Amino acid sequence: MNVAIITGASQGLGLATARALTSRGWAVAIDARREGPLRQAAAELPAGQVAAVPGDVTDPGHRAALVAAARALGPVTLLINNASALGPSPQPALADYPEAELARVYAVNVLAPLALTQLVTGDLLAAGGTVINVSSDAAVEPYPGWGGYGSSKAALDQLTVIFAAEHPELAVYALDPGDMRTELHQLAFPGEDISDRPEPAASVPAIERLLDERLPSGRYRASRLIPAVAS
Q1: Is 161 in contact with 154 (CB distance < 8 Å)?
Q2: CA nearest 202: which of 2, 20, 10?
Q3: Which one, 65, 73, 103, 220, has least CB within 10 Å?
Q4: Tell me: the pLDDT tens digits for 73-132?
């Protein structure tokens, strides 16, 4: 049974992806900071195909526990770095961005994904596996107020393509899922109605296409992958 590690999987895109993978026969090791929602999410997934490890991805001990739980399920062939931190809400301009808050955003969005990838590089190389780092259009578009989150995702994109160049045996992707109706997106637009945004499950076919077709490593937008899936 193939095993995927999915961070930030108590809700949103992480949970939607876990549902899709387990329906395909995968096992998943999932995490989130809030134990209650994570346990609830795990209860929705097939017994024997899920390990739920609550904790913070910036904590080295938690990352080690998550990897150990994944290996107990089987060979780790996929890592999805989905957990993200937005930063303050409403988002401040860079001139006013608190240094401690910015450090936290980079710790979650850049340093933790790399550290987790380092832990499972050997597993992935043995399996010819895949890394998917969840990015954002804010990584490439200069939206006012998005300097912390956007620059962290730009850094993650660069780490992604360099890691891919260093490990051509692997499939390594930065995926921009597009706007989604998630808690993080709501925090980015406090007080606004985001009910017109697609549910996270709408972006999952893009992940499935990356896995099924093993496209060349690089940065992809879900909106450009999904029409081909539908056709």
Answers
A1: no
A2: 20
A3: 103
A4: 999 999 999 999 999 989 999 999 999 999 999 999 999 999 999 999 999 999 999 999
pLDDT class for 178, splitting at 50, 70, 90? Answer: confident
CA pseudo-torsion sign 67, 6, 52, 128: negative
At residue 92, φ and ψ (nearest 5 deg) are: -85, 160
The 3-state secondary structure of the chain, one letter per residue: CCEEEECCCCCHHHHHHHHHHHHCCCEEEEEECCHHHHHHHHHHCCCCCEEEEECCCCCHHHHHHHHHHHHHHCCEEEEEECCCCCCCCCCCCHHHCCHHHHHHHHHHHHHHHHHHHHHHHHHHHHHCCEEEEECCHHHCCCCCCCHHHHHHHHHHHHHHHHHHHHCCCCEEEEEECCCCCCHHHHHHCCCCCCCCCCCHHHHHHHHHHHHHHCCCCEEEEHHHHHHHHHC
Total of domains in the chain = 1
Owning domain of residue 52: 3-230
- Is the overall model pTM greater than 0.90, yes or no? yes
**CATH number of the domain encompassing residue 180:** 3.40.50.720
pLDDT for 198 equals 82
Query: Mean pLDDT throughout 31-50?
Result: 97
Spatial separation of the C-alpha atoms in residues 1 and 205, rounded to whole Å? 21
